[in-house]
Design brief:
The protein is of the alpha+beta class. The protein folds into two domains: 5-113, Aspartate Aminotransferase, domain 1 (Alpha-Beta Complex), CATH 3.90.1150; 134-195, no CATH class. It has seven helices and four strands. It has helices at 5-13, 18-32, 98-113, 134-141, 144-152, 155-166, 171-186, and strands at residues 37-41, 44-48, 52-58, 63-67. A four-stranded antiparallel β-sheet has the order 1-2-3-4. A hairpin with a 2-residue loop joins strand 1 and strand 2 (44-48). The longest helix is centred in the middle third of the chain and has 16 residues, at 98-113. The radius of gyration is 26 Å and the shape is elongated.
């Protein structure tokens, strides 16, 4: 079993209830993939084989385990109800039986070896044009310099101003934001200009 001393340290520093859980997960992952490599990413243990295979973590009252491509896995069912996600693991009994767990690891290995990629998540189309509220448009019409600068802005910069204005809860706040936006736009500034270096 090829181990990483940083994972040893992680397990040693975990709460007493978590240590046997983490050791069991580690043992099963190595049983399912003898060539697996251990590493630390984002401050918790990960298991690598042709990319990220799975990871485990310890918290105050529970442990967590997850396969990197779990949405592509079929999972298994058995007496312990093994599936691809185990939820909050508070004892070794919350883990699937070893044989079912090893099958899951082998399925994850096959996905990585075959180069299967998870489907891209549908994202909101933020590149589309955004519609400015009437009060902003009216204020821009009264300031030709601001209107010209606004017309040259990218959709994302326009959206930042529009969201800032439309999120105002009170009318006074919204009016103040519209006035401030027109002033900044006329100066050629994006909404968060103060944070740009």
């Amino acid at each position: 079993m090829k181990t990483d001393p940083r994972v040893d340290d992680y397990i040693a520093k975990a709460a007493p209830f978590a240590q046997p859980i983490l050791r069991r997960i580690r043992e099963v992952v190595h049983a399912g993939c003898p060539d697996v490599e251990e590493t630390m990413k984002w401050s918790f243990p990960h298991f690598m084989h042709h990319g990220i295979l799975c990871s485990m973590a310890s918290f105050k009252a529970h442990c967590a385990f997850g396969f990197w491509k779990e949405e592509l896995m079929t999972g298994t069912t058995g007496p312990n109800g093994a599936v691809t996600t185990f939820g909050r693991v508070t004892s070794v009994k919350d883990l699937p039986r070893k044989q079912a767990f090893v099958r899951l690891v082998k399925e994850a290995v096959r996905l990585n070896e075959d180069g299967v990629k998870p489907p891209r998540k549908a994202t909101e189309d933020r590149s589309r044009s955004v519609r400015a509220p009437a009060d902003l448009l009216a204020a821009l019409r009264n300031n030709p310099e601001a209107r010209a600068a606004y017309d040259e802005m990218s959709p994302s910069h326009k959206r930042e101003y529009i969201e800032w204005i439309t999120e105002a809860k009170r009318d006074e706040t919204r009016k103040r934001r519209v006035a401030q936006a027109v002033e900044w736009i006329a100066e050629g500034r994006i909404r968060d200009w103060r944070y740009v270096r």
